[in-house]
Each structure stands twice: as structure tokens, then as C-alpha cells.
Design a protein that fits this description.
alpha/beta, 6-stranded mixed β-sheet, 50% helix
Amino acid sequence: MYTYEQRKRAVELYIKYLYKASAVIRELGYPNRHVLVKWFKEYEDTGDLHKVSVHKSKYSDMQKQKALQYYWEHGQSIKHTIAALGYPSQTVFKQWLNTAYPDRKKYCVSGGAMVEFPQEKKEQAVIDLCSRAGSAKEIAEAHGVSRITLYEWKKQLLGGGNRTIMPKKRDAVKTKCPDKSEESLRQELFQLQEEISLQQKLRDDLQRDVYRLTLERDILEKAGQILKKDQGISLKALTNREKTILIDALRGKYRLKELLSVLEIAKSSYCYQSSASRREDKYKALREHITQIFTSVHKRYGYRRIHCVLRNESIIVSEKVVRKIMKEESLFVPSVKIKKYSSYVGEVSPAAENLVKRDFHSDAPNKLWLTDITEFHIAAGKVYLSPMIDCFDGLPVAWTIGTSPSADLANTMLDSAILTLSEDEHPIVHSDRGGHYRWPGWIDRMEKAQLIRSMSKKGCSPDNAACEGFHGRLKNEFFYNRDWRSVSIAEFISQLNAYLHWYCKHRIKMSLGGMSPLQYREKLGIGIPLQSRKEPIL
């Protein structure tokens, strides 16, 4: 309650300081802004402030008399009177009693005096206790405290200490502490206090370190559960989007500031990623379409070929967007490196000269052919493929599939390839130094068709890199990362043959402008080889 003078002074200062309530409150220390404005409105309306505050009682005189009468007639219990009548509060009823019966006997229960002794007096009392000549009771009375309080001070200042163990033998002699000076006791007390302070600091540091290590462990566990990351993943290597996912997962257990500090991400970056994750994905339809394309080609296309397929479908989108979506959806072309099959059996006949010299470019069909044999090892047995690749567009013009890498495998393929040539076409046929290409049967067929032989150096696979690349693509897209345990030899050959037809007709090549080899030849008006025209054998 403020006096009239205090209220008027506050209003005058409010007017003087151009109605700045903060300046008035800062100078006077009272009241709050709402009350000050209320006083000012009263002063503005009436020209002055009221001097006496008249408070109208909530209860009538009859209710007061009834309550007091019930109190005296029913055991003088305030609690029971309020419970019976339902009014008023204990504070109000006590005011009624004090006003009506000012001379009544009042009862008061005290909890004792709470005297706060200075630290110096406590230290002096403990020193007197440790170096006492009389009893502890006499020292306690001298300092005006109880004996229990004196020992409590000793425990607070010197710690719990080691309790003295009484000797088991009755004749054991009690040892007394040597007398120490007051200065030495003060020094010991100071050292003990420093040790306690140091231990407390070390304990706090240890708790802080344990808390941070627990936080980092929880983050790594969540990274393994939610993001499918390895346990040894570096938190710095995570993207801001991944860090935001981890923070949202742990917000219920840790404070945001702590999570941002450990993951080393700015709060603005977290807020941006958090709001971005709540926005609708504008690539939702495209994402589903890319996944469908990737599945339809049996996981054989990377982001460049997927982008080319979309472009052929008149879907205009950046190549970087396709790469980003495929990365987010974990659409990766599986690949495995394995030791390749070798058919080298020694110098059966003189080797032909290397006419290609790693230049696999051809400006027209049927000018440069490449061949080699590759092996497929499945649970049912081994299967061998012998293709003939045209360097003009990478088209397999002929191929044979068998269960033995015999000369018939290569010779039959060569016969099929020769049938695709016109009379004036005599391409170079480049191979490695395998025995299939040095037997008389192969050489006779080459001479009759007037084909030109060319061979790589011994054990030098880069000399036939284009054909090796064809085998690598074929195995990555068709053979590796698939379960062939329940597939028979006949079923495998049928599926391999179907893939080669798909390769010729539908598999797009970036070097051909996003077209398959046969589509490219049809566009140029070039004839299609006979074997490539056949439907897959299923």
C-alpha cells in the first residue's frame, strides 16, 4: 500500500519525464507500469488522487457475528468454524477476532531462533575445540551454541574425517593428538578447504565429460539406426540434412544448444533444413518415375542414362537433379571386380601383327571387329560367351553361348558374323592371343572370307580394351549381385541371350545420342545384322 505522498510524487515524475514509466520506476523503485498509468488516469480525470482508501467488506456484520458466536460456542477452533460455515479465510477470521477481542490470550508456536554465525566465529570455535583444555560443553557455552552445533561446525569445516576406532584390548592405551598451535590449525583448515574445492571442481569436470560422451554415443547410435551409417562414421562427414534428422530424434532428451555444438551445425542451418523437410517434395512424381525406370532396366543404368531416358520421354530436368535423387533413393548400379577368364595355351601358331594399336574408332560399320571369350561361373556349372563386337557403334553382330570354351564356340560365332557381311566388306578382326584364334579352323575361315587378323600383345588386356569393356558392362548389369544358385544352365543361357538382344535393341548409349545400337543404325539407314534381328530365346 502506497501513501498519498508516494503516489503523487510518482505521478508528478511521470509527467515530468514525458510519460516514461521506466524512468520513474528506475528512480523510485515503485510501482509497476500498469499501476502508474492507473494513478495518472485518476489524476488526469479528477485533478487529484484519493487520500484514503475505503475498502468495502465482502461480508456483512451479521455474518461476522454469526462466525464469532460459532467460534466461542464450539471449542474456539478457527479451522472447524470455517469448515462449518464455509467462510471466511483464516487470515480474515483472525482479523475479526483481533478487532472484536483485542485482549484475548494469543498462542504462538516458535520454531526457535535462526541465528546465522559468521564464518570467522565458526572457525575460531572449531580451533578452540581441537586445541581445548576443557570439555566440549564448556567451549560450546563460551561461544553461545550447543555442543551438537559445535561438532556440526567441525564436520562442515574439516569434513567427516576418519572415525576413531576403539582398541579391542581393554588395556590399550588411548593416544592423544599432539597439541597444535592456533596458526597451524588455521593453516590445516585452509588446506582442507582448498582440497575440497579442488575435488568439487574435478567432480564437476568429470560429470561434464561423461555427459558429453554420453551425448556423442547417443548421436552415433541414432546415426546407425536412422541414417544406416557405420558406427565409425565421423560426425563432421554428415550433411546438414542428416544432422537435422539426428537433432530432431534427440530433442526430447538433450537441449538444442548442446546438439548443435556437438554436431557443429549453425542454428540457422538447422532451422532451414527443418523447415525444408516439412515442405512438400516437388520431385515426388519424378522420384517415383526414376525409381520405376531404374527397376525396369534391372538396375543397369546410371544417372546419365536415366537422364537420357527422361529426355527421350520429353521430361526436361537437370542431370544434377537426377543424380541427387538417385543418391537419396540409394539407386546405385552394382559392380564387382573379378579375375577374368584366360584362354591362352601357348604359341600354337605364329601370332598376327597388332594392326589396331588401341585405336578402336571406326567411321563405318564392318570395318573393325573385336572378339574375345568370357566365362560365367554359376552353381550349376560354367557358361562361356563368344561375341563379335563392331567398333562403329558397339553392336554385337554375332555371338555364341556354350558350356565349353572349345574351338567350335569361336568358329560358330565367326561363321554367323561372316554371314552379316556383303561381298565387298572385309573388316579387321582383332583378338587376344588365345588358342581359339590360332587354330587352323579359325585361320581357314578368316582367309576364305578375306578377313584381316590382328592380335594383342601377350597378356596385355588394354590392347583389346573395347571388348573387355563390353564384357565388364555385361557382367555388371546382368551377372553380378544376382542370386544364380537355383538357375539351371539352360535357364541361364536363355536369360543371357535375352539380355544380348535387349542390349542391341533397347539399351541406350550416351555416345550414340541416347539411342541403342540398332536404333542408331535405323536412324542412319544401315542394315541390321541377322542375329540381332532374332527375338530372344525364352
